[in-house]
Write a structure and sequence with these properties.
266 residues; 2 domains; five-stranded parallel sheet; Arc Repressor Mutant, subunit A; disordered N terminus; alpha/beta; single chain; four-stranded antiparallel sheet; Rossmann fold; elongated; 8 helices
């Protein structure tokens, strides 16, 4: 078998026939980690929250994609076979499913067909080595919303996932505002009274969810599900800590209200 090159968040990942293993990701040069910026115009350390399920049986590639998407501020779960993917999709809400086709246990085509037939709001991006025109047509006819062949540019994968995330459920406006608080989702900026706020990815995600709720109460459990991922401990105080940090960064007068026994609202 020849060598295959798969593009990962850190650069090309080469799998060789000699040992069947994967080399360390290689980059062309030093770069600033995604999700952070020293630009004075960028007011956050992250991007809009999208919850994603990556379904890929090549563990190294799946984990590399997961790390890269998390650095872009997304909440990411991983599945390594089709049966596990269906189980996770049944109990969690994902905006986007990044789906390989050639999966063990349940083929990716069956996963796609089943979710599409159930009317699930999850948008499906097929990510597969089968990239011929007839393969793409077949994937879209199965119910996929988009199709990306391997090898791929990671920046394109991120852009496609974000585009699909904007199409899931009810579309969220590109700019969310309440009083003097503004979150520009397209520019990944948050400000209050015209002053940029430097927020972590999770703080920005929580703020977006609360703003989009338009005053409705959002429980800590829902914040964990939508901003973090399946590995978040439901008994952790991470939501409370994040809310506390947000309140401090937002400054007076206070905007986030704690509703005892229910959750939080703006």
């Amino acid at each position: 078998m020849g060598r295959r090159t798969l593009v990962t968040p850190a650069g090309p990942l080469v799998r060789g026939a000699a040992n069947g293993g994967a080399s360390e990701p290689r980059t062309a040069g030093a770069c600033r980690p995604p999700g952070r910026s020293n630009s004075p115009g960028l007011g956050v350390e992250g991007r809009a929250t999208v919850r994603v399920l990556v379904v890929e049986d090549e563990v190294v590639l799946a984990e590399a994609i997961g790390r890269g998407l998390r650095r872009q501020g997304m909440a990411v779960d991983l599945s390594f076979d089709g049966a596990d993917a269906l189980e996770k999709a049944a109990v969690n809400h994902y905006e986007v499913l990044v789906l390989d086709r050639d999966l063990p246990r349940v083929h990716g085509d069956q996963v796609c067909r089943r979710l599409a037939s159930q009317g699930a709001s999850t948008r499906i991006l097929m990510l597969t080595a089968a990239g011929a025109v007839e393969d793409r047509v077949q994937g879209l006819e199965l119910g996929a919303d988009d199709y990306l062949g391997k090898p791929f540019a990671f920046s394109e994968l991120v852009a496609r996932v974000r585009a699909l995330g904007r199409r899931s459920d009810q579309p969220t406006p590109p700019v969310l505002a309440r009083g003097d608080l503004v979150v520009d989702r397209a520019r990944h900026q948050a400000s209050r009274a015209g002053q940029f706020l430097r927020l972590t990815r999770k703080e920005l995600g929580v703020l977006e969810v609360l703003l989009a709720a338009e005053g409705a109460v959002i429980s800590a459990e829902e914040l964990l599900e939508r901003v973090w991922d399946e590995h978040a401990d439901p008994f952790t105080n991470t939501v409370r800590v994040t809310i506390g940090n947000l309140r401090r960064k937002l400054g007076p007068p206070p905007l986030i209200e704690t509703v005892i026994g229910a959750g939080y609202r703006l």
